[in-house]
Design brief:
The chain is an alpha/beta fold. The protein has helices at residues 32-43, 55-65, 77-91, 115-143, 165-185, 203-213, 220-230, 241-252, and strands at residues 23-27, 47-52, 68-71, 96-99, 147-152, 190-197, 263-266. It has one domain (23-200, 238-272): NAD(P)-binding Rossmann-like Domain (Rossmann fold, 3-Layer(aba) Sandwich). 43% of the residues lie in helices and 13% in strands. The longest helix is centred in the middle third of the chain and has 29 residues, at 115-143. It is globular, with a radius of gyration of 18 Å.
């Protein structure tokens, strides 16, 4: 069995209050990477707005961290604009925008690409990020205090063959628009960066594996085992929600004050070198 835990890796780090007094929005913040990030930001002193379509889960998490929850379909620009205005009405400003909401699909051959499916992924994964960058930038420019915008991409944007064509397209485009926005917004003291995780065991990834492999009874531990064995240079270890949350915390914090236009890859080295090479160096 792999050592991964798809809910939490059990770490209990002392919060450093690196975001004390800052106001943050996390889209897709009800659970998974978004939920872990919202929690970590709160532990570090941020006031967090959780935006999601999972109302009950999101409301419960927001209550537990002293934040607020708002229903938000990121494919609708008006929803995202409302969330930004809500944050400003709540605390008078917006310092951090984590554009995290997204979906995956089980598309296969490019010769059978369903354009309706592609449109759905573009509307949520890509347009949702653009909506977030646009309206967060407006608020941050208006305040004159700069800010940090972080967007969720993926290892699939770096290495071909890790996900469907539609998903890969959207995640690659996120890196492109983030770097482009960083060029413009840097003049206003606003940093724009990406975080790109490799596969992390989750309910969403489990469903993708079940559909792709044709194994509806597949369990989350099996996904953990696959990633632990072949999805990281750190044998027996795969990424957790908290690993990504820590990366986002850094990009959101003042410690990353000179980091912009960057794609921070959280993949255990998977996209940097061959996992198969481990055997050459004496792994038993």
């Amino acid at each position: 069995m792999g050592s991964c835990d798809h809910i939490s890796d059990g770490r209990h780090k002392l919060a450093t209050k690196r975001l004390m007094g800052k106001v943050a929005i996390v889209t897709g913040g009800a659970r998974g990477i978004g939920g872990a990030t919202a929690t970590l930001m709160s532990e570090n002193g941020a006031h967090v707005v959780i935006a999601d379509v999972l109302d009950e889960v999101g409301e419960n998490l927001a209550k537990s961290i002293g934040g607020i929850y708002v229903h938000c379909d990121v494919s609708k620009e008006s929803d995202v604009e409302y969330v930004v205005q809500l944050a400003i009405s709540w605390k008078g400003k917006l310092d951090i925008m984590f554009n995290n909401a997204g979906i995956i699909d089980n598309g296969r051959s490019i010769t059978n690409l369903e354009m309706n499916n592609l449109t759905t992924l573009i509307n949520i994964n890509l347009n949702g990020v653009i909506h977030g960058i646009k309206h967060a930038a407006r608020a941050m420019i208006s305040s004159g205090n700069g800010g940090s915008i972080i967007c969720s991409s993926s290892s699939a944007a770096i290495m071909g063959g890790l996900a469907s064509h539609a998903y890969t397209l959207t995640k690659g485009a996120i890196i492109g628009i983030s770097r482009s926005a960083a060029c413009e917004l840097g003049g206003h003291g606003i940093r724009v960066n990406c975080v790109s995780p490799h596969g992390i065991p989750s309910k969403m990834l489990l469903k993708a594996y079940q559909d792709y492999l044709g194994k509806p009874d597949m369990m989350i531990d099996e996904v953990s085992d696959i990633i632990s064995e072949s999805g990281s240079l750190l044998h027996g270890r795969c990424g957790s929600f908290e690993d990504v949350a820590e990366a986002v915390l850094f990009l959101a914090s003042d410690e990353a004050g000179f980091v912009t236009g960057h794609n921070l890859v959280v993949d255990g080295g998977f996209t940097s070198a061959s996992v198969e090479m481990r055997s050459i160096y004496g792994e038993k």
